[in-house]
């Protein structure tokens, strides 16, 4: 479904001229609604600090109210950020073409003078970071049923990006702050500024590393080799955060050996104490389901990327009472960041060899067949 391209509340006298200007920058104008800067300034009360609801990698996000009363989230790009302009165009062109219940919906944009602004649907419960990992005053009580639904919803959205979007999309920055929650705590993946498009004949892209420390797959962080399995790894880390209510940040360590969350989970699994990873604040939960989710996280974060399931498999592993073949689990991979002090840049090379990702050598399922799912230089963001 495409959105009608129109001016908002009569803000522009000539849509054709503005459309032509946008098309010269590679923007698909038939997919978005065009807003004037003045209309968005009015919606946010001149971008008042009290309306700030978040900060992305390249700008600030404000809550706004349009003239018709619609609440929106307005992401304003830093005017001085040249690199951010590339991410703005990537995010606009990527998200404007896709629709899924677990992906944030783009409403429109503003590209006027030096202003670069994206307008999204407003989600009442903010980000998963705020709801689950934020300060005590901002946290929301998420019982196990809500957490389980968030996990399966995120998996569904990511599976859509990897397998059903045209072309396929690798997000590259799956993390708690990029998962937003609506009034019913339905999760929606957002912030597509770092996304990469993967045509069907492409197995991997060699590119500068981009993402967030703590969620980066080791093969991608070290070699810059990006595949869908990098997103799978990030999803596995996020899954552990949701189960445990703890951060995967290097600032959070566990046990006498000061292990990171993923290392701690692996240790507990090997010692038969995996249940200890479950958030102690959860008073009533399905232990069998929580343990299965934790094991799925370990499957997703294995050091060898080819051993990780794809997201269609992950959806099935989370959604159905399947028996997981735990004997296939191998040690998780972990990348520890060391600052190199180098400058940034990007030279992407694309490989078009036969798609090896579809040639799964082993199945994470025990006696189970998969059904089709129907439904460079480092640029890394701090935690």
From TrEMBL:
Q: Does the keyword Transferase apply?
A: yes
Assign the protein's first listed, main location to one coarse class. Answer: membrane
* Comp. bias (Polar residues): 340-377
Q: Which UniProt keywords apply?
A: ATP-binding, Glycoprotein, Kinase, Magnesium, Membrane, Metal-binding, Nucleotide-binding, Phosphoprotein, Receptor, Repeat, Serine/threonine-protein kinase, Signal, Transferase, Transmembrane, Transmembrane helix
Tell me a Gene Ontology molecular-function term this record carries. protein serine/threonine kinase activity
What is the membrane topology here? Single-pass membrane protein
Task: State the organism named in the record.
Answer: Penstemon smallii
Q: Which family does it belong to?
A: Belongs to the protein kinase superfamily.
* The name this protein goes by in its record: Protein kinase domain-containing protein
């Amino acid at each position: 479904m495409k959105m009608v391209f129109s001016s908002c509340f009569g803000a522009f006298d000539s849509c054709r001229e503005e459309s032509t200007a946008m098309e010269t920058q590679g923007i698909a104008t038939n997919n978005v609604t065009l807003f004037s800067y003045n209309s968005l300034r009015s919606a946010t009360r001149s971008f008042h600090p009290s309306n700030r609801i978040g900060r992305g990698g390249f700008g600030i996000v404000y809550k706004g109210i349009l003239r018709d009363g619609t609440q929106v989230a307005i992401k304003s790009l830093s005017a001085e950020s040249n690199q951010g302009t590339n991410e703005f165009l990537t995010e606009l062109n990527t998200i404007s073409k896709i629709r899924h219940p677990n992906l944030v919906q783009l409403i429109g944009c503003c590209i006027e003078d030096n202003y670069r602004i994206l307008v999204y649907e407003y989600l009442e419960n903010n980000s998963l970071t705020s709801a689950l990992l934020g300060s005590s005053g901002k946290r929301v009580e998420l019982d196990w049923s809500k957490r389980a639904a968030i996990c399966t919803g995120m998996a569904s959205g990511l599976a859509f990006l990897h397998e059903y979007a045209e072309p396929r999309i690798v997000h590259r920055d799956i993390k708690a702050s990029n998962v937003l929650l609506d009034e019913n705590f339905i999760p929606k993946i957002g912030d597509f500024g770092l996304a990469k498009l993967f045509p069907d004949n492409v197995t991997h892209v060699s590119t500068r590393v981009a993402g967030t420390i703590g969620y980066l797959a080791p093969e991608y962080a070290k070699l810059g080799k990006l595949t869908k399995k990098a997103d799978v790894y990030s999803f596995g880390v996020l899954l552990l955060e949701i189960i445990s209510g703890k951060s995967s940040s290097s600032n959070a360590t566990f046990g006498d050996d000061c292990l990171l969350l993923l290392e701690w989970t692996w240790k507990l699994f090997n010692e038969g104490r995996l249940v200890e990873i479950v958030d102690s604040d959860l008073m009533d939960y399905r232990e069998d389901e929580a343990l299965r989710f934790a094991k799925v996280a370990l499957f997703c974060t294995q050091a060898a990327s080819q051993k990780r399931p794809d997201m269609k498999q992950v959806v099935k592993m989370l959604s159905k009472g399947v028996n997981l073949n735990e004997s296939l689990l191998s040690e998780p991979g972990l990348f520890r960041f060391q600052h190199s002090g180098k400058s940034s840049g990007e030279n992407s090379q694309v490989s078009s060899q036969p798609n090896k990702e579809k040639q799964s050598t082993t199945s994470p399922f025990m006696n189970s067949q998969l059904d089709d799912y129907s439904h460079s230089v480092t640029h890394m963001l701090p935690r």
